Amino acid sequence: MRKKRIKKRRKIKIEFYFLPSLVTSGNAVFGFLSIVYTLKEKYYFAALFIFFAALFDFFDGRVARALKVASEFGTELDSLADTISFGVAPALLIYSWGLKGLEPFSVIIASIFVLGGIIRLARFNVIHLQNPESINTYAGLPIPMAAAALYSFVLMHPEPIKSKPFTLFLGAWVILFAYFMTSKIKFRSFKDIGMKTKSFLPLLFSSIVILGLVYYTGYTIAGVLYLYLGYNLSRSIFKRKKVSHYEYKAEEN
Fold first, then answer.
1. Which tens digits make up the pLDDT trace of 38-63?
2. Is the peptide bond before 160 cis (omega within 30 degrees of 0)?
3. What is the CATH number of the domain that holds 38?
């Protein structure tokens, strides 16, 4: 009887093992669809597909942890899917939608973003293998957030950019977020805030964000991104000032 129960549990675990990988595959498929629709010059849908890929990326790790079937295979598959959906897809989208006026530098700028994303993902994998429990903070801006800085523009204004000043601004913006990904700035993952928390604020914030995504998708994505970025940058600056203050006091003593 006991052997039958063990076999049944193993069978259920094997069946569940593929579920996070299926979710991750959805991420990659939406990333590919974004590339296809960018080539068709249907920019709004291309941007929307990256957002859908981000939703799948948000849930795949949580599904794996909830089912206790997280694996190295899943980590590698997730990184490969992220390279397509949040590296190549947004870079191609922003190139076709807004950077063409900077030729020949537009290709270089888009390539810098892709390289920044690849470096960010490779570094994450190395850190994760060395310390699998280090999930509360990231070194560098997560690639889905960097991608959001690009495709949110397209969701807010789907028509291709023809303004030279904005094209220049956009080029600098892409390079800035490539830098954020490769920087050593610590970004909170907020994975330590779960459903068990007694605070009402996370639930309220999530409800507002969901409503915003339904009615004002691009503006809500941009708003959440800049809140996240501003919070982590100010936190990083405050910590540096605090460390410098203690070092100065130690030297005085």
1. 999 999 999 999 999 999 998 887 77
2. no
3. 1.20.120.1760
